[in-house]
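Journal club prep — side note

Before the paper discussion, L.F. wants everyone to see what a predicted structure for a comparable chain looks like in token form. Sequence:
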Amino acid sequence: MLKPTAKTPALEVATVGGGTWSLADQKPETFTLIEFYRGYHCPRCKVHLLDLDHKVARFKERGCGVVAISMDGRERAEKSRDEWGIKNLILGYGLTEKQARQWGLYISKPIQATEAAKFSEPGMFLVDVCLLRQATA
């Protein structure tokens, strides 16, 4: 379990649209907000991510970077972006079960055919970049 001021686990994932997102590479002025979400199958995640998508600019004004990450594969992550209308939020995909557990996320199995074979439950982390810089210095 992660606790305040504890060093965060390394985190690197592929992103919708190409490239990778790495926590170690983030250089916001203040914080990095990491939103872990269930995936494409989750209607509540859709509502939450759409709300977050509309607030990305406000987070950036305050010096905070934002990313949303799931265990979905590329195809499902792209569907989330396209069908949900995500325009501003970086969507990371391919989170492994090991990575999810390192962040203290619970792992669920599907109860409906539309759900992924395995997915992490939601979690939100606000990472202090000053602590990240100290850990890598």
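L.F.'s comment for the group: The chain has four helices and eight strands. Keep this in mind when we get to the figures.
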